[in-house]
Design a protein that fits this description.
- The complex is a heterodimer.
- By secondary structure, chain A is of the alpha/beta class.
- Chain A has 8 helices and 7 strands, in the order H-E-E-H-E-H-H-E-H-E-H-E-H-E-H.
- Chain A has a 7-stranded mixed β-sheet, with helices on both faces.
- The N and C termini of chain A lie far apart (about 45 Å).
- By secondary structure, chain B is mostly helical.
- The longest helix of chain B is centred in the N-terminal third of the chain and has 31 residues.
- Chain B starts with a helix and ends with a helix.
- The radius of gyration of chain B is 20 Å and the shape is globular.
- Chain B has 10 helices and no strands.
- The chains are: A alpha/beta, B mainly alpha.
């Protein structure tokens, strides 16, 4: 029942809204994972980011796709928590690591071991729209455990104009999506972060975006 | 719509499908006889034409309302591409939202056949309203550029294109053999055919560039080939689809052909100014919707007012 509701929400609302009303221009779609496990790493501008990434993969893969999201934000009330976990399909994690407590990424490790595709935003927050903040290192710790799982970098532009943080009415702007070549996890956290950073550097320079200030 | 009216429409649409079949076959044969050549872009371009003709035919055959909604949607897609490619300001969000809202309102006047409102709504009321919205936000840096570019885009993608829809709102007249839908088909088919004829003639015979700074692919040979074929077609189709007499049909052919040419250059100039190639990627082989309707943004208002002045 829940999985049908989830399918219905995506097929009837999310797909038509994002792919037709907003519109997407995708480059190098072939780099997207065709099966799990995989980790999609993207920059974060808007609540629409995760939904957009989910619509780019075939609908039949929907049950296996999960955005990793901040529990303190998305579980803040009962309806929001139910909707985020069951309909959007987020894996809620704690943004804080408390010594002595279990690793906050534990549910994420389990999902990868079960062959799921995860969506991770290493900026940690939407922040300033269309402005990329420094990536946090959690992603490197995650992929360090699974060096064979492909990490697909995706640079997105436009959704921050359509629905930036703090706004509730979308104003359509076409979303440009650049999919990079998959990279692998590294034992060295800093080396992985450098690889990831340089991949986003390349992706974000593939196109000259119109000025927006 | 009586059976007699739609028969002429169906006849012309069947002719267009026949042209598309011919184009598909020619490209398939070319690809077969010259395997070392790459025809994928041409093939995807023709596939997209099939989709456009299919959707457009349904929109104009169902009824007036379906056609108006379809054209309003085309305006929306074109405006969205325009707003996505131009430089904008964060503070313009609200004004852009109002700009989008003007689309259903403008097409509602078309639906109501309220000519007076249709013709002043965007040039007067929206022109006055958008700066007001922007003033209330209070960001003055880049104000003139924003107010100017936003309204310019609305004039091209909404006001200009909505003239094609107003052909459907013109009073039914026994002298118009296929009704407003006939006039719309006449305008859209000739505009798009002119684009293709200019492209083909330019590819085959093009030597002398018209304005290479704006568009290196536009040649005098292509322009001339487009004008000749469009005027000829305008002359032949006029009695089937429109109330135009012979000399007016020839004039309409010239208006659509030159109008389309300028409309195309106009959008090319913006893209060149902004350093981009296509306005979007919705129509494989063509680029964006704005790349497809650029000619129509000029030919629609010009053809509309020509016909409106002479016959309505």
């Amino acid at each position: 029942m829940i999985s049908f509701l989830r399918w219905l929400f995506f097929a009837v609302i999310v797909h038509p809204f994002l792919l037709i009303a907003i519109g997407v221009n995708i480059r190098n779609r072939e780099n997207l994972p065709s099966s799990g496990p995989a980790v999609i790493v993207a920059n974060h501008n808007s609540h629409l980011d995760a939904l957009m990434l989910m619509t780019l993969l075939p609908t039949r893969m929907l049950p296996r796709i999960h955005p990793v999201a901040a529990g303190d934000y998305f579980l803040r009330n009962r309806f929001m928590a139910w909707f985020s976990v069951n309909i959007i399909g987020i894996i809620p994690i704690s943004r804080k690591y408390i010594p002595g407590k279990p690793d906050p990424l534990m549910p994420v490790y389990d999902a990868i071991e079960d062959g799921h595709i995860l969506i991770v935003f290493p900026e940690g927050s939407r922040g300033e729209p269309e402005h990329m903040a420094t990536f946090k290192k959690g992603i490197a710790h995650l992929t360090r455990h699974f060096p064979d799982v492909p990490v697909v970098p995706v640079f997105m532009h436009g959704l921050g104009k359509t629905l930036p943080k703090g706004k509730y009415i979308p104003v359509p702007h076409i979303c440009d999506v650049f999919i990079g070549e998959p990279i692998n996890g590294e034992p060295d956290v800093n080396l992985f972060m450098e690889k990831l950073r340089s991949s986003f550097e390349t992706l974000s320079h593939q196109y000259q975006f119109p000025e927006w200030e | 719509m009586s059976a007699g009216l739609s028969n002429n429409l169906i006849l012309v649409l069947a002719g267009i499908v026949a042209l598309l079949i011919a184009a598909t076959l020619v490209v398939a044969l070319l690809a077969q006889s010259r395997p070392h050549h790459d025809y994928t872009e041409l093939e995807s371009r023709i596939r997209t034409w099939w989709a456009i003709v299919f959707i457009f035919s349904i929109a104009i055959l169902v009824d007036r309302v379906a056609a108006i909604i379809f054209l309003a949607f085309v305006s929306f897609l074109a405006l969205k591409e325009y707003l996505s490619m131009i430089p904008t300001r964060r503070s313009d969000r609200q004004a852009m939202f109002w700009a989008y809202l003007s689309i259903p309102v403008q097409y509602f006047w078309v639906y109501k056949s309220w000519y007076g409102m249709f013709i002043i709504f965007i040039p007067v009321f929206i022109f006055l309203l958008l700066p007001l919205r922007m003033v209330l936000i209070g960001e003055i840096r880049g104000f003139l550029r924003s107010a100017g570019t936003l309204h310019w885009g609305l004039m091209i993608t909404v006001f200009g294109l909505s003239h094609s829809a107003y052909l459907l709102a013109l009073p039914a007249d026994p002298g118009v053999p296929a009704g407003g839908a006939g006039l719309l088909l006449y305008l859209v088919f000739l505009t798009q055919f002119n684009d293709i004829a200019q492209y083909i003639c330019g590819k085959l015979l093009g030597r002398h560039k018209v304005i290479p700074q704006v568009s290196p692919n536009k040649t005098y040979e292509g322009l001339l080939g487009g004008v000749i074929t469009t005027v000829l077609l305008a002359f032949l189709l006029a009695p089937v689809l429109t109330p135009l007499n012979q000399s007016h049909a020839i004039m309409a052919g010239f208006i659509i052909s030159f109008g389309g040419f300028i409309g195309d250059l106009n959008i090319s100039a913006i893209k060149r100014d902004l350093g981009i190639k296509d306005s979007g990627a919705l129509l494989p082989g063509h680029g964006g919707v704005l790349d497809r309707v650029d000619s129509l943004s000029y030919s629609a208002p010009l053809f509309f007012h020509f016909t409106y002045y002479l016959y309505f």
